[in-house]
Write a structure and sequence with these properties.
The protein is of the alpha/beta class and 267 residues long. It is built from nine helices and seven strands. The protein has a seven-stranded parallel β-sheet, with helices on both faces. Belongs to the short-chain dehydrogenases/reductases (SDR) family.
Length: 267
């Protein structure tokens, strides 16, 4: 007797942090996995553990997503592998400083990893999934997409881009039977803080930092509910809904022939 499975999930940034936790949760949900990251050794160790604990097939695909050739390999896999039913766009980085005091190369690398890579991978997945009329895309953004005044604007801007991309694709993909979700974590206890030179406990305090396992469990609950945007730490969902309603209410007035009266200059 064959047992149906939900298919294969391809997870970027899977060697540690939120990506590794997604791998664990999705394997326990019955997904086979393709784990993508730069650190091949850590990926192999995680793959061996998950195979032993869950019995799922786990493949390691070592790739540096800031390298265009490596990124193209992952794009091609998403386009060609009909077994892939879920993309988790998780890989990302932050900076130790702002655009005022970091090297241009560091800004460029952040944009390559946080914007270019997930955009191209989402596009490849969206086209493949729409052609099969099934599948899902999960983009890991951040609550900083809604708070540009906090911390570094390059990082928060990259996450606002992912939120925008997700919301823009939600309706056309739904018409093709494909789901897309943006997850907006708050501060989460992962290695990204140490790698960018930040002491998150000193910055925010332990009471404001979510455990990665709790975050992923909540995010997948939101995915199960069919949410386009999931904000795990937000207690009052009505605040998000009010913000959305206010934004949509501006729509009819965002492009008009006449300038607004406050900008008219007397002759």
């Amino acid at each position: 007797m064959t047992v149906s499975t939900p298919g294969t999930a391809l997870i970027t940034g899977a060697s540690s942090g939120i990506g590794a936790v997604y791998a664990d949760h999705l394997a326990r949900r019955g997904y086979d996995l393709i784990l993508v990251a730069r650190d091949g050794q850590r990926l192999s160790e995680l793959a061996a553990r998950l195979q032993a604990e869950t019995g799922r097939a786990v493949e390691v695909l070592r790739a540096d997503l800031t390298d265009r050739a490596d990124l193209a390999v992952v794009e091609a896999r998403l386009a060609a592998d009909a077994g892939i039913t879920l993309l988790v766009n998780n890989a990302g980085k932050s900076m130790n400083g702002t655009i005022l005091d970091v090297a241009p190369a560091e800004v460029e690398q952040l944009i390559a990893l946080n914007v270019t890579a997930p955009t191209l991978l989402a596009g490849a997945a969206a086209r493949a999934f729409a052609g099969r009329e099934q599948g899902g895309i999960i983009n890991i953004a951040s609550v900083l997409a809604l708070a540009p005044e906090m911390f570094d604007g390059v990082y928060s801007g990259s996450k606002a881009f992912l939120l925008n991309l997700t919301q823009s694709l939600a309706a056309p993909l739904a018409a093709k039977g494909v789901r897309i979700q943006a997850v907006l974590p708050g501060a989460t206890r992962t290695e990204i803080w140490e790698r960018s030179g930040k002491d998150i406990d000193a910055l925010l305090g332990a009471e404001r930092i979510m455990d990665a396992d709790d975050l992923v469990a909540a995010a997948l609950a939101g995915y199960d509910r069919g949410e386009t945007v999931t904000i795990p730490p937000l207690p009052d969902e009505a605040q998000w809904e009010t913000m959305q309603a206010a934004r949509l209410a501006m729509g009819p007035n965002l492009s008009l022939r006449e300038v607004a009266p406050r900008y008219r200059v007397a002759a």
